[in-house]
Amino acid sequence: MFDQTRLIRPLRWAAGFSFFALCMPTTEAQEGAWLGINTTPFVSVGFDADHGHWTSDRPDSHAPIGVMGDHVHSKGGWMFSMRYMLMRMNGSRDGTHRLSDSQVLGQGYMVTPTSMDMEMLMFGAMYAPEDWVTLMAMVPYVRKKMSHLTGMGGTFETESEGLGDIRLSGLFPVWRGDHGGLVHLEGGLSLPTGSTSERDATPMSASAKLPYPMQLGSGTTDVVLGATAQRQQDWGSYGAQARGLFRLGENGEDYTLGDVHELTTWAAHRIADDASASLRLAYVQWDDIRGADPELNAAVVPTADPGLRAGQRLDVGLGVNGRLGSARLAAEVLLPLWQDLDGPQLETDLTLVLGLQLSL
After folding, report:
1. Which residue in 26, 30, 49, 314 is deepest, having the highest Cβ count within 10 Å?
2. Where is the signal peptide (predicted)?
């Protein structure tokens, strides 16, 4: 069922991004140029940083590989990408405090999760039909594995694997500075192509409905909004991005995943003509689930409780970008500095992203 009130938050974000764009400097003295006022294309290629303009001929012209939708292309430009992502979780947390398995089971649960690995292979494509818009598609293939401990001391694992939710977005450059600065906005949709009905064998059933974190998709059409600002200097580049994922409606399992809000900033240093190293801070906050899957019993395991899914986390990331002709190889490792979870909930220990990008 579609809830019209769910449009309020993404519309507020859109208004905020528009205000951000309108506040950018527009005079020559303030080194700005607006799309539609200045006829110079707003692109990520063709500018020379040595003469005060953005250039894609440097390894740091792309953000760390864990940042999505970070750049735009000139008219007719194509880029294909493949990313491998691993998120490793081990142990539970409630608020900012870690909990032992026995402490979780002591709250009355029959089962507690002990660890989880989430792997994703993300295939991406970008194409710019015009200088003012770059189209982006991201297709994920997801594999999840969760280990459990029962109150009787037994252990078991559950797995799920398949297509995740496909994202389609448009990236719209709105400002280019005369000293290597770029700003673009993002608007798009996340399509409900991932399954919300995954099952696996457990000690209680040969085909049990898996809890919320083990499902592959949201089951709803969601709105993606974002804004990215970057600047190049002789020594390297730096940037920031705000992004939000806003859920619309309710899926066929009678629930809606929580909205997700992300804010990240980074700096990259040119360590060679074809290589750069980056440092990044990434903050993410996600809400509780609204509604509940009637097949899940929240008293059995914490992951089946829709009211125990919210949280926030601050990560620090170290990355490298390498350029080989028209191809880019990149890697980034993110480690949590701080986590505050509406638990008991598995905490994140490590996120790894490896990527290959090919521009045409």
Report:
1. 49
2. 1-29
